[in-house]
Amino acid sequence: MHSEVVASRSADQRDSSRESRNGTPQLDAVSLAIIQQLQEDGRRPYAAIGKAVGLSEAAVRQRVQKLLDQGVMQIVAVTDPLTVGFRRQAMVGVNAEGDVESIADALTAMSEVEYVVMTAGSFDILAEIVCEDDDHLLDVINKRIRALPGVRSTESFVYLKLKKQTYMWGTR
Length: 172
Description:
- The chain is of the alpha+beta class and 172 residues long.
- The protein has helices at 2-13, 29-40, 46-53, 57-69, 100-108, 134-145; strands at 18-19, 25-26, 88-96, 113-118, 125-131, 151-158.
- The strands form 2 sheets. Strands 4-5-3-6 form a 4-stranded antiparallel β-sheet.
- The longest helix has 13 residues, at 57-69.
């Protein structure tokens, strides 16, 4: 029986976030539980996480590092843009001609663009933009986004009030 417990424990402590056939990591229940713990509090100590998920502090530290290295998660400080001087946010829908990926790459390189997704539907790309004010937003849309080769048109959705912003969907 002792060997079964030791075998079970070493299987649990082994990193079991393997890659699937398409190259994306497949996460086990323990890795998902670690992510959930960090989503609740990104500063939670590894010892407390270990206690919650049944691993040692060292095993949690290794798993977290592997999740970070694989790009599965990031640990960041999330701010309210208004409180740090960014008074204007907008979602910009982009209709494109030709290579959508090259436009998405160019948008990704812009410091004001926080989120880029290629879509199916009314727009080819959606980009979330965070700017200091309306003049800054106008400059980004008019002189930089609309000037990109292949951008046919844009439609802007200016945020009036942010009601919800969470990142808890990662382990549902």
